[in-house]
From TrEMBL:
Gene3D superfamilies, per the entry: ATP synthase, F0 complex, subunit A
Membrane topology: Multi-pass membrane protein
PROSITE patterns reported in the protein's UniProt record: ATPASE_A
Alphabetized Pfam families for the sequence: ATP-synt_A
InterPro entries tied to this protein: ATP_synth_F0_asu, ATP_synth_F0_asu_AS, ATP_synth_F0_asu_bact/mt, F0_ATP_A_sf
UniProt-annotated location(s): Mitochondrion inner membrane
GO molecular function: proton-transporting ATP synthase activity, rotational mechanism
Name the record gives this protein: ATP synthase subunit a
Gene Ontology CC annotation, any one: proton-transporting ATP synthase complex
Assembly: Component of the ATP synthase complex composed at least of ATP5F1A/subunit alpha, ATP5F1B/subunit beta, ATP5MC1/subunit c (homooctomer), MT-ATP6/subunit a, MT-ATP8/subunit 8, ATP5ME/subunit e, ATP5MF/subunit f, ATP5MG/subunit g, ATP5MK/subunit k, ATP5MJ/subunit j, ATP5F1C/subunit gamma, ATP5F1D/subunit delta, ATP5F1E/subunit epsilon, ATP5PF/subunit F6, ATP5PB/subunit b, ATP5PD/subunit d, ATP5PO/subunit OSCP.
Species whose genome carries this gene: Zosterops erythropleurus
Transmembrane segments: 12-34, 69-89, 101-118, 170-189, 195-223
Keywords assigned: ATP synthesis, CF(0), Hydrogen ion transport, Ion transport, Membrane, Mitochondrion, Mitochondrion inner membrane, Transmembrane, Transmembrane helix, Transport
Gene that specifies this protein: ATP6
Length: 227
């Protein structure tokens, strides 16, 4: 059976049952559970420091009203971060390379921020569709453009995350395939491609972390517009 480069993005299944839910819930098992002890271990201390750092970074652009979303945004950030990083391990599946999953995360949260703005300050939320001082002949066109840009926000969130992770995985597989294929004929070139593969892996680790942060940061900025 011949495999293509895109087979790594197909959802794994066992006896016809999709295993994507298991791959999505597995990162939660890696987090240490909190207990009531006053003295915690180093792993729990590191976890608490990391969560506080993420929460502080995400809540900085938000006012006090937006701090109610701290739990949702921080949990989403840790969830995406763990999935993206675990997907770089060999023989693993990355659920965030699926556009359907990313849109399922982006669309409800974007809609929640939009409905929050329409409920709390409807005039200000609708006022974003028409900048102040717009000439009268341009009003219909600008309303149409701003409405379109507003509606494609969840699509842009999902496509950005999917495209970046998919491109990185494809590059890693292409270079690793070239490294193995050149090892028997041109060992020096193979070692050079192995070095490139090592550097690309470091880059992809950074991309996985940055894309998780950008996804949640943009959601927090959309929330700030509506509160």
């Amino acid at each position: 059976m011949s495999l293509s480069f895109f087979d790594q993005f197909s959802s794994p299944s066992l006896l016809g049952i999709p295993l994507i839910l298991i791959s999505m819930t597995f990162p939660a098992l890696l987090l240490p559970s909190l207990d009531n002890r006053w003295i915690t271990n180093r792993l729990s201390t590191l976890q608490l420091w990391f969560v506080n750092l993420i929460t502080k970074q995400l809540m900085t652009p938000l006012n006090k009203e937006g701090h109610k979303w701290a739990l949702i945004l921080t949990s989403l950030m840790i969830f995406l971060l763990l999935i993206n990083l675990l997907g770089l391990l060999p023989y693993t599946f990355t659920p965030t390379t699926q556009l359907s999953m990313n849109l399922a995360l982006a669309f409800p949260l974007w809609l929640a921020t939009l409905l929050t703005g329409l409920r709390n300050q409807p005039s200000a939320s609708l006022g974003h569709l028409l900048p102040e001082g717009t000439p009268t002949p341009l009003i219909p066109a600008l309303i149409l453009i701003e409405t379109t840009s507003l509606l494609i926000r969840p699509l842009a969130l999902g496509v950005r995350l999917t495209a970046n992770l998919t491109a990185g995985h494809l590059l890693i597989q292409l270079i690793s395939t070239a490294t193995v294929a050149l090892f028997s004929t041109m060992p020096m070139v193979s070692l050079l491609t192995l070095l490139v593969l090592f550097l690309l892996t470091i880059l992809e680790i950074a991309v996985a972390m940055i894309q998780a942060y950008v996804f949640v940061l943009l959601l927090s900025l959309y929330l700030q517009e509506n509160i």
